[in-house]
Design a protein that fits this description.
This protein is mainly alpha-helical and 171 residues long. The chain contains eight helices and two strands, in the order ααααβαβααα.
Amino acid sequence: ANLIDYVIDLSNQTGNKDSMYFMYDYMINNDQLREKFDFIIFDTIPTTTVYTNNCLVASDYLIMPTQTEQDSIDNLVRMLDYAELIKRNYNKDLNIEGIVAYLIDINDKTTAVSLLDELYADYPTLMFKNYIKDSRVVKRWGREGLTRHKPYDKVIRDMYVTVVEEFLERM
């Protein structure tokens, strides 16, 4: 089945105006994807769109990345509130597992490290201990990918592995 078939089927079954929030959840359950896969990962930008709504409604866990920039932190606060709203009204099983600091310039003591400290103070239980440091390697992944033979690629990969391991511990 394709996405259009799911939307039509779901709309016919529910007649609910909020049914557009449940497309992914319907697909996952209808195709028994939870039984076929250990993890189903949705990667979305932190905005309040139908796509994000669907991801939150269909998810068991939520991890929110944020950069140590004031705009990113302001968006994080709004998304935390929004995720709580979705949890309360549409997906009571959604676990907000935490916040991962991303692209942190650890040499920028005046802004980045100071905002990172504020995040740890404001969200002590939600903040992951591990974070992703700023790096040209991280920024070029989309185009070049990672290698196994470049030493610095391994260092960067290890940062991500520690974040994943921390997430698995939190689960």
